[in-house]
Amino acid sequence: MNGTLAWVGLLARLVTGGVWLVAGGLKITEPDASVNAVRAYQLLPSSVAEVVGLALPGIEVAIGLALVLGVLTRGAGVLSALLFVAFIIGIASVWARGIEIDCGCFGGGGADPGASSAYPWEIARDVALLAASLLVVWLPRTRLALDSVLFENRAASGAAEGEVD
Amino acid sequence: MSSKSSKANARAQKAAAERAAQAKREARRRMLTVGGVVLAIVLIVGGSVGYSVWKRDKDQKALEEAVATAAAYGVSIGPEDAPHEVIIYEDFLCPFCGDLEEETRDDLARLAADGKVRVEYRPFDLLSQIGDYPIRATSAFSIVLEEAGPEAAKKFHDLLFANQPSESNPDAVDNDDLVEYAVEAGADEAAVGDAIRSVANRDWVTEATEEARRVGVSSTPTILLDGKVFDDGRTVDDLAENLIDALE
User: Fold this and answer.
1) What residue in B sits closest to A146 (Cα-Cα)?
2) Residues B32-74: tens digit of each pLDDT
3) Do residues B52 and B139 both lie within one domain?
4) In this structure, are B28 and B117 located in the same domain?
5) E-only strand ranges, chain A
6) A163 found inside a domain
7) Residue A153: what pLDDT?
8) Owning domain of residue B25
9) Co-location of B61 and B84 in the same domain
């Protein structure tokens, strides 16, 4: 049972991590678009939007790498979950205010008429990825994680976490 | 109380000491590993952010070079030999442009009248994917400019921003409203009415927009102060305030 869950954990890591890598990678090379995408939510003051727009792609790539490789997995999972919560709030908020924008999730962003029809699906996608992130946080171990090499219990005290693998 | 048991005792103590040392080494190794991984993450984030900032700066430099040779689709106020030159790329529908206009309109007009600055407003179509308002409004602007001159065009431009529709309902200002503002700005209805209603100057809008794109303007408002991108401000209000301060 635990064995199966550990594999499911690997899948969750790869899916969420892969999404972060793609989302961040597409934005790093388009900093102006990224800043504008954040501004378009009309939630943050201009300069905060600028900082977020410039910093977020790099953070997304780092979280993605950490999840895919399985390094500091739980920490990365927590950050991943927090970001998805923020995105869900952001999209729900523009939806509620009747602002129609491209979510800028994978580059792009800014005004986009008719975008509101995509909001439910975008929120559903983020909820699913949030759930996957939480699963990664909840599981003590997942398969093929670099963590288990880096933090392997060499000492006899491994008995405390005896069921490792 | 045999020497045997004291020997066993010593062995046990030695073993315990070894275990403790082992645990200590292990803890140290973990700390170093965590530190190394965190450092790697910091480097990745820092490198990415650094690249983004560098790329943005490079894009801005390219824009500043291009704008020096850009054809002017717009209207200017203030003397040509004023010590400062401000160029504002804007879209009549963009809410930040509306905020900026509200904050700077009077001060820029006063500074231009005092000969301290020349301000050039370059409207173009950035947001017509929301609705055709930017095209209708910019076309009407160019018609007023051609038929009634720059003074009326500037007044019309001000009226458009003062009565700006929201992005969620850009059709709140229809073509009849545009004609009304044009007349209020000093244009002759007989001269501009039909042209504004039929959006006659679409080509002018297309050309102005292509020119803005060629320069590399990808967002509005884009402000240039003496040829340099001016984006010093936490909010649009700050931006407006700092711009005026720089010109006073």
Assistant:
1) B37
2) 988 998 999 999 999 999 999 999 999 889 888 888 888 889 9
3) no
4) no
5) 101-102, 110-111
6) no
7) 61
8) 1-67
9) no
Asked if B21 has any chain A CB less than 8 Å from its own CB, the reply is no
Q: Are residues B217 and B122 in the same domain?
A: yes
| Residue A15: burial class (beta carbons within 10 Å; 0-12, 13-18, 19+) | middle
Distance in Å, alpha carbon of B200 to nearest chain A alpha carbon: 25
From chain A, pick out residues whose CB is under 8 angstroms from the CB of B52.
28, 31, 34, 54, 57-58
For residue A154, list chain B residues with Cβ-Cβ distance below 8 A: 26
- The 10 Å Cβ neighbour count of residue A160 is 8
Residues B124 and B213 in one domain: yes
Nearest to A28 among B51, B130, B168 (CB): B51
Phi, psi of B137 (to 5 degrees): -70, -45
Question: What's the gap between Cα B158 and its chain centre?
Answer: 20
Q: Can you give the CATH number for the domain in which B166 is found?
A: 3.40.30.10
pLDDT greater than 80 at residue A157: no
Indicate whether A164 pLDDT > 50. Answer: no
Average pLDDT, stretch B201-213?
A: 94
Structure tokens at B106: 């009077």
Domain final residue pick, B67, B91, B111: B67
Same-domain check for residues B4 and B102? no
Q: What is the dihedral of CA B126, B132, B134, B137, to 10 degrees?
A: 160
Q: How many Å apart are CA B130 and CA B124, to the nearest integer?
A: 14
Q: How many domains does chain A have?
A: 1
Return left, alpha or beta for B222; rule: phi > 0 is left, psi -120 to 50 is alpha, else beta.
beta
- Please check whether residue B35 touches A, CB under 8 A: no
Q: Which two tokens stand for residue B3?
A: 């020497």
* Domains: count for chain B: 2
Does the model's ipTM exceed the 0.95 cut? no
- Quote the Cα angle for B221-B222-B227, to 5°: 150
